[in-house]
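A common beginner's mistake is to predict each chain separately and then try to dock the pieces by hand. The better habit, illustrated here, is to supply every component at once so that their relative placement is modeled jointly.
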Amino acid sequence: MRRTPIVDALQAEEASKEIKICGWVRTRRDAKGFSFLELNDGSCLKNLQAIVDEAVPTYEIIKDVTTGAAVEVLGELVPSPGKGQKWEVRVTKLALLGSADADDFPLQKKRHSDEFLRQIAHLRPRTNKYGAAFRIRSEAAFAVHKFYRDKGFFNVHTPILTGSDCEGAGEMFRVSTLPATGVEAPKEGSVFDNDFFGREANLTVSGQLEAELLAMGLGKVYTFGPTFRAENSNTPRHAAEFWMIEPEVAFADNVDNMDLAEEMTKYVVKHILENCADDIELFAKFVDKELMGRLENIINEPFARVSYTEAVDLLLAAKKKWEFPVEWGIDLQTEHERYLAEEHFKKPVIVYDYPKDIKAFYMRLNDDGKTVAAMDVLVPRIGELIGGSQREERMDVLLERINEMGQNPEDYWWYTDLRRFGSVPHAGFGMGFERLLMLVTGITNIRDVIPFPRTPQHIEF
Amino acid sequence: MRRTPIVDALQAEEASKEIKICGWVRTRRDAKGFSFLELNDGSCLKNLQAIVDEAVPTYEIIKDVTTGAAVEVLGELVPSPGKGQKWEVRVTKLALLGSADADDFPLQKKRHSDEFLRQIAHLRPRTNKYGAAFRIRSEAAFAVHKFYRDKGFFNVHTPILTGSDCEGAGEMFRVSTLPATGVEAPKEGSVFDNDFFGREANLTVSGQLEAELLAMGLGKVYTFGPTFRAENSNTPRHAAEFWMIEPEVAFADNVDNMDLAEEMTKYVVKHILENCADDIELFAKFVDKELMGRLENIINEPFARVSYTEAVDLLLAAKKKWEFPVEWGIDLQTEHERYLAEEHFKKPVIVYDYPKDIKAFYMRLNDDGKTVAAMDVLVPRIGELIGGSQREERMDVLLERINEMGQNPEDYWWYTDLRRFGSVPHAGFGMGFERLLMLVTGITNIRDVIPFPRTPQHIEF
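With all components supplied together, the output reads:
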């Protein structure tokens, strides 16, 4: 007999003579002549209650059916007289699949700190909070795919291993099959001549450049995959390995780009509210009391849009003490981003047309010669959620900008080639998937929206 | 005015007074007083024909509107008198977005070899074949997500960076921020004490172990992400970076596992046939004449299932000269796998219960003490498409197997922990996404189903 997932049992339309449920015991309560088990199998937040009468043949094993143990029960699905549950199971057969010694099992029924749970990241998916977080993560990922597919985008897998170390060499992880020690620099050529790829290889920090290549053939594409930063910074918003969503659209300008970013953010939030109601409710209740208001605001209000120059004026006019002084030309810091989104606009705000000197070479130079057609989406609590731009499609301007940034155009022969052969205006952005999840759940530490986070000194599991 | 993707224009229900089309010129033909342009924007295989009359104000730029150039046209969508196309555009405004010098543009209208196109992987998405391949890749990825979500699985992102080098150390890529040369082994401790993670870090070869951890909380999960092998082998079936789909199911045995593998394979093939008809037709016509028959067979016929022992008997009875001699205990080679699928069964075949000595420690030991509850799906032309097993859920047997394989149980404290706390029978498998795409398209080289393939000595783009 096939097991029925608890999510289906709880939504059953009618009682059932025989049902098989498997799950982990969240709690056991014993009464005279029978025991109540709260079972959870991960399929949803809610538990299913199973009642085991002492008449059940294997009732004597009940002493081992402790919190954390796994059981299989056969029984009858019947209406529950209890509050808050429509159905319960009257058990006719009980089997212990795996015990969980009550003295050792770390997830006893009590509140555990996030720090403690990170140390047992292999077990925390069995808690309400992390089960909910990872179910939401899954559904948000699906929403991303569905959104782009419905809009005619193609999902492309851009490479993780890259030979280009140009976008910030110091912060990349090097990938190698050479020995870790005892390697001497050769007299001629490069040490990497003998490496797997015959040249230096790194982990990608962004799939953008390759996504652009694909957009120039397929029109509208997006990547959704892991990216890497070797930044030695221990903040609640940074991880060494995280997932990014990067759409790239041919025949699009920076306004199209902002429209897409806003539409996508709203879509995913709405999809999660509609498809993960129970799990979101947990976060709204126990993690962030203002969560629902913020999510409703994201869905219902148009995002504010201001130029960088206007944003700087707003920051200068603000009656705030800034840790990082504000003047035209600075890169906005999290304190500035959060002020704009949280205090000034009280909703997401898109800042566009940034000074060219603080942005990458590939962003399209505006006619003023001072700014580029970049745009960032800033949201309350997080700051930057999305960063993007129209890309420089003009060969001469692009080459000038590569040189200005002190880089070598030959490293980008394939990238500049696209400006030689059927160049078109195009735009795209990158959204940190974990930041989106922090926004959606109210979770404040990036380590808690990633099943097995990687940060400096942490690579366990 | 917004551009209309060509896929939408071609499926229009009625003519339109004004439409904007952007795309790359596949061909231009000039006639007396007007020119025909075949435009493609990547949204589908088919081109849209645009007719530019010499009366169009900018008609003089037509000389630069060569193969590979990008244009924007405004015009009227009208019924086409030509064969094989319902609609065409009568252009009223023509703009050149980017030219493509006819002498330099590598993709002139002629047949190019796959080898040549790999060298210009940044441009090949603009060819019919690779456009089709990457659209199919996208749709197949969506089908995978949809299949699992509809069945109540959660998508989990298992880590790419791993501290465990246990599954085949020699074939892993090391990830480091230490200098590449001049590093000396320290007198005490490890050289990796000073590395980013404080220990040796590698790129994952499989998300399985972490997926198991998540399945023990969420019930049914799957990973779909990049995996890495540092094998220095140049075969048409191997790449250093490829994507894998790995479901992991709690409360499931090896028969459930085979059922899931078969159902999933059929689902994706069916989805592609239904959603990518034009693109598949290209492969059936020009790449593999037997493609449609093979795909129909996969959908309509139940997969064969035989034990490893039966499979060995079939191979011994076959009137074939084997390069690798057959006897009970050997690992099946591609020649054996293909014989079973192509010649003996003439359809996909699932081989189960392999000798324990050729399989990994985590596969569940059968009662015979000689075999494990593994299963591989073998398909015509490819050989192994899927490999999986029921996992060893019994702590004592698992520890014995880890020791037998000469590994250290302490490296797996979190993996074995799951057998201490609520252990349950569970099973899962890994499917190479690129092999699935080779099966679906008839493409024979893995380098041609990956946008930017990584193989020994190749990391360009």
